[in-house]
Each structure stands twice: as structure tokens, then as C-alpha cells.
Amino acid sequence: MKRPDPRVPSVAETHGRSCSPRSKEKESGPRPEPASRSDSTPAAMRSSDESVVRPAQVEDLRLVGVDPSNVWDAALPAARVTGSRVRSPVGIVPAAGHARRLQPVLSGSKEVYPIGGRPVIDYLLERMDAASCAEIRVVTRPEKLDVVDHARSSGATVVLARPASVSESLLSGIEGLGGETAVVFGFPDTLWQPRDGFVRLLAALRPGVAAVLGIFRADEPERSDVVRMEGDRVTAVEVKPARPSSDLVWGCAAAWAGALRGVQSGAEPGQHLGELARRGLIRGVRLCDPFVDIGTPEALRRARERVPNGGGEE
Description:
By secondary structure, this protein is α/β, with parallel strands linked by helices. It contains eleven helices and 13 strands. A hairpin with a 2-residue loop joins strand 9 (about 225-230) and strand 10.
């Protein structure tokens, strides 16, 4: 995976906004020590109310295709970044869209359109790299040769498919993975902070939780999936609502692969996530504003203004 030039300004700086104070945790003090592994009791079975998996939650996990006995081992602390972290997640990048709203503005695929002097997909790949993904799978159509070539040159695995929806792209990406495998995914035409966002989501992924969503405020929430929350629990997901109930949207996620298999129930993954939210299985982690989606000509113009040529990552 190509590494960013540390001398280049950050997206947050070029947006003219800074991340929340939490985004500087790793710079402001010593990193927390990992939990001791001498205790052989799985994290999900320890006495803390937050980590105990109750019988109803175990059954819920089985319903979404996750074996709780395997998940307990996968969820043990394994890193020092922002607390415990699931080991060896797999990154999934759905990049098979047609970008019809951006035609004829683009001459190639929107995923490799340069924003801040680099293909926009690189921002997502970089965040997956920061989460120590064991593999990054880019799902795209065979004719999108610019995406295929760029993904391969970046060290990603290319999954060639012709999915009719984002949900089908995700299903192609997780094919062959065990239900207890941790997966992170986002959208290759978006920009968001912080770089360690997936690390934070993985730290909150545990038994009894099917998925953890990265939550942002959006300028155009009607173009995204709007969420409602109570504390850290996502209670509802509204898929591209005509009249959004808030400006909070989800823009990236970490989930167990088994839980994602249920996206086959609808064209948009938000439909399945909404069902899981109603069952109390979704958590949200507030990340840094703004969430930038380049999916329309107007949004593309704003993205270019926020991240001028030469802008990059911190």
C-alpha cells in the first residue's frame, strides 16, 4: 500500500475545520496498555455489564450468521491504539457503480478522480491500511480498468463482479469469509476524518454487537442514510430519506462478516442495518465532521474547494 507524504497538509486542515479533541488522543498522552491476556475467560463472558453477552444477544448473533463461540476469541484485545482492537480485519471497497450523476463531468471512474492531488479512493484505502487490514478487497466491474489497475498497484485484491447494488457488492466482497471475521467497509467516493476511524469502530465491535457505524454530520443528509441514536446505540437507520429527521449519517462501518450477509434483503445495506438497529445490535461512534461525498457535480465542486490540489493527509 502506498504511504502518504507526511509533509502534505491534512484533509481536516484543508477543510478549514479540525477534528474533535478525541482525534488527538494518541498525541496528547501515553497510549493505554493492552488488556492482560493471562485471564483465559473470553472478554464477552467477563463480569462487566458492557461486555457480557446475554442469551438473547447470543441468539441474535446466530440469526445473522455469527458463531458467538468464535467471536469471543476474535474480540479479545490485540492492539494498543485506542484500546482493544479486533485482529486482522478485512477491508471491503464497493467500487462497481456507474456514476451516472457525474456524467459527462468525468472522463473516467469517479473512484480514481483526483481530489487533493490523489485518487479519491486512496483516502479510504489509507484508512483501511491504518486499521491493519489483513486484506483489502476492491469490488468492481471488469470494464472499469482504471479502478482495476489502481487497486492492484495499491496492493489490494480486485474482485471482478457485476453487482446490481451496493449490497451485492458487499456480498461479493465477503464471499469466502467466516462469519466471525471482522470486516470494515466504506465508500470510495467519500472523504472523512480521522485516519484512524476504522480503528475506533473496531474497538467498539464486540459480541452482542453486529456492526459499528461511523457517524458524521452531513451537508446533504438526504443523499445518505440518516441515523437516530440513544447514547452510543443506533436506534434507527433511514435510507436516503426525502425529509431527514436529523443531519447525522453513517459513512463507514465495522461488522462481523456473518452479520453482513443479511444485506441480501435489500439493495442498500442501510435497509439491513436498520433492521439490526431495531433489534438493538448496532452501535455508533461519532467521528469528525464534515463527511464529504463527491457523488454529484455540486458535491464534487465543494470537495475540490475543501481539498485543493496538493492537499492530503496528516
